[in-house]
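Risk register update: the risk of archive-format incompatibility is retired. Evidence:
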Amino acid sequence: RFENGPGTNPEELIAAAHAGCFSMALSAILGNANHVPTSISTVAKVHLGATAAGPTITRIELETEAEVAGLAEDEFERLAQSAKAGCLVSRALGGVSQITLKATLVEATKGQ
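Archived output:
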């Protein structure tokens, strides 16, 4: 919203908090399932829309990549969806009409 000017707007702060919280939730859930991740990287994209009440967050897209050895794709997706549902920030943003998740399991590096 700052037209490439300096500073961070509130939507960017929400996105950063959501991405960080989701990554921590996913790491904890994977660890509890005995699948300790080598790495997790998450980006959150916040979309705004106009309503009668003013600008509103209409959608958040979470995109995560995780490197986890010995984990099937379907199990990873299930655990990632569980992390999305349990993430403190996801729950705090319950008024957002749509929070989507694209979860990508990265093949573990050989030797790990």
